Amino acid sequence: MADAVYTPTTTPNPGDSFCLIPSAHLDRNRFILKVVEVVLSFIAFILEETVDSCFSCSPLYFFEFVSCTAFLFTLLLLVLLSTKLHKKIGIEDWSKVDLIYTGVIALLLFISSCVFATDRGHLVQATVAVVFGFLATVAFFVDIGLMVKSHGLPFLNKDKKQEHTNGIQPPAEEERLKPETA
User: Transmembrane residues, as ranges (predicted)?
Assistant: First the structure.
């Protein structure tokens, strides 16, 4: 009996869902691309871990660090931007954070993949890890391109937030400079 009364007038609230895709920070295409970035960087990291010998291990360790960092922090960013958790952190402009992070990781992945590619030896695991490192790099650069195409550069936006005035209009600059007459 209660179902007959409440069902026709009750509608689900879409804001109550856990995952907020699409949202102001992440549309569906970029969400899928972020998932691809996470998967590719994870595969590159796992494949790098299977390399059992190296002549000069510094490039291997650098690639390991960057691919693991790319995996973990991109996963964190993906979770933050696709849920309501980003509201609990005191960051106002997530587009700048996303652009800077994605650019830095893309650059580091490119450098570490190039360095590891030049000093990988003849190991198949290392070659495949480098391939996945470059694929992840391409995904990060495509993400930057999509971000700039859809939102523009967040540093160049002319829509600056106005100062909070609590409803009181500040005096114009000319009025502040005039001497008071008594």
Answer: 59-79, 99-118, 124-148
